[in-house]
# Entry
Amino acid sequence: LRVDEEELMELVRPSGTYRAKATGLRAVSAWYRDAGGLAALCERSLEPLRDELLAVRGIGQETADAVLCFAAGRRTPVVGAYARRVLARHGLFPAERTYAEARAWLLERLVPSRLVFEEFHALVVRVGYDNCKPRPDCESCPATAPLG
# Structure
């Protein structure tokens, strides 16, 4: 928040869409400060806090959940494209459902542990990146390997 706007834009320029990203960084930084910082993110009631974060310009559902899960250690699933694709291809959750429906479905099924939520996301990203792209590589997918 103390960095000059032009300087901030130059710092984020390599990431592309630098004007929008600089504006978004300022907005989320101001929200973070006003919300009470990390202690508040860790202690406040999850859903109202998530709703506040979603109201910040440039913050979508996946980003809000990632911030709350990984930065604040909250038990909220991050339902990115890989997660939705893996769940759908294995017949666990229909691909056409919304982010909110997928999030609620996972909240009902994942063990309520910070470690579980973080590890679930990491494993889904790994299998998604390695195997479950738009054109799947099911032959080497660890989720299709026989157990034991």
